[in-house]
Fold each of these.
Amino acid sequence: MSFDFDRKDKIKRFLKGILCVPKCVSCGERLPIDRLDDGENVLCDKCRAAWEKSKRTVCPKCGKNLSECVCITDALAESCCSVLMSLVPYNHESAMYRHVVQSVLFRIKDYNDSELSNFLAKELCFRVLGLAYEIGSENIFVTFAPRSAKAKASAGHDQSEILAKKLSKYLGAKFCHAIKRKNVFSGRTPQKMLSESERLANAQRSYAPTREIDKIKGRCIILVDDIATTGATLAACTGILKSAGAGSVICLTVAKSVFEAEQDEVEIIDPKQLSETEGQK
């Protein structure tokens, strides 16, 4: 596992920092251009401190910090998922923590920000590193829960795919595009407006295996997504992986709801709108 980049790449990124002054993805504060470590120039010191503190949110189920919690939802338990590991809570009670997390998720979802994806992939790597060493990177495949074709076309990228590819590189594991998204929601009620059972049923109809899925038989799979709430999406994907013969499935997300959630596919709020809303209160 290595996060080192060659001198040419560092020079390129340094010049980019001069031409395009980097700003904190949460508060917009200008950042120094001398932070050449990969993925470190995305949050100001204040927002980074809030990000780190949010990792210490206590899970109401197990009583552990989120950085140690592996609790799974009922839907994931039924799909035979091994563990669910996340970095930060999506629905934190603190407005400051919530703003930083939602700003990061909004940015990675709507913009192909290489610095931010490097940062998050590295964070995800550290989160799962203990298990990876225990299992052995040669026995691990990294895959992802794909977003819809419409959403991918609109944004120009799939954030979970990008994170999964970079994570596999950092872990020294193999990447596999094992699952594809089917277009089944056209003309239907949006996922977030459905009940939990309806969301799970829709999620199960929305995904299918790709030709590459035969590679994962008997292997440990790390399934990457950006957010987990009820776990319907991850459960549907886990079911496909297990049916294809996966040995175990580790679900890994950037954020998850630590309290009861009302929707599986969270509607990310533009951080600017969130700031305006908080200011009116």
Amino acid sequence: MDPQSPIPNDLKTVLSQYKLIGATKGRLGDEIVKYENSNSHQVVYLKSGEGVSAKSLDLEATTLSWLGDKGLIIPKVVYYNKEGNWTYLLISGVGGLPAHKVKDFNKDDILKIVAYALHKFHMISFEKSEQLDTLDKDLEKIQQYIFLKVVDSEKFIAANDGKTPEEVFGYLDSHRNLFNKDSLTHGDYCLPNVLIDGNNFGFIDVGDCGPGDMYKDFSSMEVSIKRNFGAEWIETFYRYYDPSLKIDQEKIKYYQLIDQFGYYLDVDKYNSLAKTSGY
């Protein structure tokens, strides 16, 4: 299976040493193709997309470059380019298995590793990180979605106790000052995005990383633990992260509401508008 987008010639040259393993689509419609080097068996992933997915890939490339000297195990940018409406990002694979698929440790041990990994991430200095994602940028993006009418209102309302996208955004906007900007957040911290390889761990899908409130990561991790291990394991994660922490459920819910706009974004409609209007 080949990507639907035409591959630039210089990228074809890079990929000539790899064989195609498989392909899938990302949440925003981006194409993700897995390749393996025939000699070294090194794995790389080609992500390509237009419109909203192109913007996401641009931010991921920027973030990976910024994180490159922070001492983390993360993908390395092998190739990055923009051609027409499309963005192409080729990244190296990270060793290990997604945390929820690791068989060598029990759930308690996995959550201990995942909590330690997040604590380490939160302690990284975010000096000179102006180009990274922030809560203010997230809210600006949501405001644009509402203006462009690219949120599926019917499904959104059904999933949010009858509240419209406009009403939920009003709540988010009016409560933004309750949140800190004192941690470097991963942005999509969940069990599948932490790879465990023996005593080592790495991070993937860091495109939404940026200075902000640690609750952004707590929120997504709660959802992930509930989905993969069961809600009864959430307390174990927090015990290992910081046993003295008292969780504010309103802040957890806040970030989960932000995620609703991504769940019910009409990607095709947004991309169509991006082509015709330049959004």
